[in-house]
Every structure is written in C-alpha cells, then in structure tokens.
Write a structure and sequence with these properties.
114 residues, alpha+beta, YaeB-like fold, 2 helices, 31% helix
Length: 114
C-alpha cells in the first residue's frame, strides 16, 4: 500500500493573531476553563488533520483569487461557536497555509486571506 502524502501545515501570522486575540479570548470568556481547553485542543487537532488530506476541505466560493483556490474546514463546537478554518494548498511544496480562523457569524469581508 502506498503511503499518503503528508503536507506541512503553516499557520500564517494574520491567522495566528486572530486565533490568539479573538478566538481564544472568546472561548475563555464563554466557556469554563476545562471546556475551553477541550475546545482549543479540538480546534488544533482539526488544523493538524489538514496535513493528511487537505483536499477534503470545501472550496470557498466567496473568495475570488486568480492564483489560489481557498478551502475551508468547518469547526463546529456549538450552534453559536462555528469557525471556518480557511486555507490554501501549495501542491508543489506540499504545504498548506492556514490564513484565517473565521467565525461564521462575522461579515465575510473581514476574512484574512493574505
């Protein structure tokens, strides 16, 4: 059986800042400490899972880019806490670039795709 290709997952600075400044703050404010730790672990596990099969992500038709196809994986913890893990794939370099952790209740014009 052939080995699956494993892609390196890179979280861009804008995505890391959103995660640290907004997402973690929201989780800590709205959930108990033990629950917040579980949610953060689940979110990071989902991000790591992209390395094994990045093409399973849904193409994001709301982002128009001439040189990249953006995809997302939906991370849903509750009906009030859903995030799009937004990324694009560089097949030649075998890398996945996570560009945003986007709350689905936020205006799409606020996505960070750089």
């Amino acid at each position: 059986m052939a080995e699956k290709e494993v892609f390196e997952v890179i979280v861009t600075n804008p995505a890391m800042y959103r995660f640290q400044d907004e997402i973690l703050g929201y989780i800590e404010k709205n959930f108990s400490i033990s629950r917040a730790i579980e949610i953060e672990a689940g979110l990071l596990k989902t991000v790591r899972s992209i390395s094994i099969n990045p093409f399973r992500g849904t193409k994001d038709s709301s982002i128009k880019s001439m040189d990249r196809v953006y995809r997302f994986i939906l991370f849903k913890e509750t009906r009030y806490f859903e995030l799009k893990i937004l990324f694009y794939i560089d097949e030649q370099a075998q890398k996945v670039f996570v560009t945003d952790f986007f709350p689905t209740r936020m205006n799409p014009s606020n996505m960070k795709i750089q």
